[in-house]
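Forwarding these from the shared drive since the link keeps breaking.
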Amino acid sequence: MLAVSMTLPGIALPAGDEFNLPSLGDTSSSIMSRQQEYQLGRTWLTMLRGAVPTLDDPQLKSFVEDLTRGLAETSQLSDRRLAFVLIDSPQLNAFAAPGGVVGVNGGLFLHARSEAEFASVLAHELAHLSQRHFARGLEQQQRMQVPFMTAMLASIVLAAAGGGDAGFAALATTQAAAIQEQRRFSRQNEQEADRIGILNLEKAGYDPRAMPDMFERLAQLSRYDTTPPEFLLTHPVSQSRMADTRNRAEQMAGTGRTDSLNFQMMRARVQLKYEQSPGLSAKRFRALLDDNGGEHAAARYGLALALSRGGEHGEATSTLAPLLEATPDDLTVNLAQIEIDTNAGRLAQALERNRRLQQRYPDNFPLAFSEADLLMKQQQYAAAERAINRLANQRESDPDVWYLAAEIRGLAGNILGVHLARAEYFKQTGDLQQAGQQLDLALQRAGGNFVVSSRIKEQQNELQRQRELIESL
């Protein structure tokens, strides 16, 4: 699969050593308003979700969301209504799309060796958003009408969805009119995103040297690999970019944090997912643990999960036990024990631990999702429905939540609720035809209930507006 960054051409950088942020929102907003960007970006997000496989792991999603929102708090991003998509691919890629859409491939966890390196890529992408490179690209090329640019983004979605030659052909066709100009502005955008991103990385408390470290490793990957990582196809790492970020990092304090155990445990989760079998993962994690005298916490975490997923629940429990003893309140370690207990059929024990943790970590997404799933597995369908409904109210744009909601509501006998949950799921994954069919079925089920029928009709109107927006692209 080829994933292509959705960040587009911008304007030239100011001359001189000092980097001054441009004044935004005037002429670029006359080409495309922030609200238009937002609407287009969210529409493309639903199309992308329906076209590519995504990661449904609540812990990975929560980690990316929390880290990115933390970076956004210290960034120049004025509109912080962010949306996220985690692509199920071991290839290295990340992208930013108009309207605050941030995408990350699972492969970013594999290639970034520390949390600071991981954060450096996301800081770079947030800089693309804060500088509105999409709208400013339109401003620079006013002769290119908005439909031209939307066609380009549609072809990018096709390429990201694994369209192969068709995606490349569509992309080449739409870009042909101004390819040289785009390349020039794209290089300028990358340098601008580097310089703003590294400032934000330091402000967020990370070691800024992580950005040139990441760039240099990427350059090595492209040097020795005939097929460079996906990220490099749209983010080429030149000698000048590496030198510029290295020079800037060395001029900063460099006292920020570089890594965390939580990141390394998330990285272990991703490694476990993309390795051929839990048995092979267990062998590798065990060797890593032995090489470090049993003192490698992330390897112990990964080994415990690999053993459990391979059916060795007793050994998994004893392997994780030292981590639980050392950090009895750590959320990630406790979630691992919940997973082990669930795999072993110890559902009541898993639910008890979950609820104890929720007292310490209220409104935590992975815990809330786990609670609903555990209640469903214990056939406590009414309680499971209440749990998933609470979560759906908090994460109304998360298709994985709506998928579980439809399953739970069906088991609870709430057929109207099933249709409504399915409608939301299909809407969030870009299948508007199926979403419409589910709303029609829901309206029939609502019968003479005026309040419910009115809400469903409003959802139908909203769906129609979304169809019209897509048809206008």
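-- next protein --
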Amino acid sequence: MSYFDELAFQYIDGEWRAGSGSWDIVDFNPYDGEKLASIAVASVTEIDQAYRAAERAQPAWAATNPYTRRLVFERALRIIDEREEALTEAITAEVGGTAVKVAFELRLVREFLRESLHLALLPEGRVLPSPDDTKENRLYRVPVGVVGVISPFNFPFLLSIKSVAPALALGNAVVLKPHQNTPICGGGLVAKVFEEAGLPPGLLNVVVTDIAEIGDALIEHPVPKVISFTGSDRVGRHVATVAASHFKRTILELGGNSALIVLDDADLDYAVDAAVFSRFIHQGQVCMAANRVLVDRSVEAEFTEKFVAKVKTLKVGDPADPATHIGPLINAGQAEGITTLVEQTIADGATALLHGTSDGTLVAPSVLTGLAADSPVLGQEIFGPVVLIIPFDGEEEAVRIANDTPYGLSGAVHTGDVERGVRVAKRIDSGMVHVNDGTVHDEPIVPFGGEKHSGVGRLNGEAVVDAFTTTKWISVQHGRSRFPF
């Protein structure tokens, strides 16, 4: 585990150093409990040092020819290709990612880095007309300056890169705080890749810490102009409130309660495959996961029989075993919470078609149905291997049930008629809906984000230009203005 020994530090102004906080974050393997690293937390002092380093380094980086900035991302791609085996081992150890999950994550990391090559060249100026014949109005897209990024534990390498890379490509500097459960994959690895790729010191800083040590210093600090946060809606609400009080913009990618809808004319075998993947990829610890599978009552029996049969084939165990489908949840608290949720839902009257047992952080799949319409579990995000099967009668009821949640991130509609699927998808109150596919998708040029409690703003492609740059108006008077006094 050389990465865990090498990167168990703060990374500030191009230097790896210990934090000065009053306690250590201990990094554990969620599968076997092995201690991977111990990191002295960053204090408010290090937060300030990181932001000030970013502030000093950013102007020269913004002035660097974008073709030159692109070279950093080209080298980063090569490093990831060369270190794929070590990166895979690190993600498996720290995150509990199965072979399928790790491959999915690293593929998307590459795609987002490739897109960053283009983003460096994407901001374009405009010249707008003026009522004054002698005036010229120029609009420039300029970097916001410094971006604060707070990333989650479930896809830490990807979801850090997803904000860090475009922010850097567009001429900004970044201070990144990874989740305390994944400080290496979400922070240290990101810094290491860009350091080796030749990113100048100070442009990317990683602070491993916790709100218990620094309070809201990461958000309140005067240097960052934008905060990009990925995590729960509860924490996202706090981030947005604090940031707004300091006149900072936020990009919030929050939780979900996605519905995968199976209409009466769907290919049931295909819909089963899509639903199983959409619910159980990375143990269900995915914001886009299909918490709820809505099935037309006319095909409910056949679909459910096939769905349960397929779920029974999923292997639960060591994520390092290529045959494993479902590895550990991120920590014991998460596993206990999911187990308690299942037991309470059954006690409230739900039927368990599969009742998954738990062993430490390993939780086997549960398939629940027969829920009361007012069951609390229907409206919440379930971050674990639990799926709810809900019958409906016709499209109208399907849409109503799908929208009956405070979240609106992703979704899917399965049907034999694509245009019917699109019509239904348009009525789902979510940022993304996929016809005849799974709910878990991300592509580097397509705007990614949610509605309602699932977030504010969008990432990817041109959307990140809006997120991480600002518009500057410069007018040029080629004649002489006339002033009233």
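The chain is about 40% helix and 20% strand. The first strand starts at residue 10 and ends at 12.

- D.
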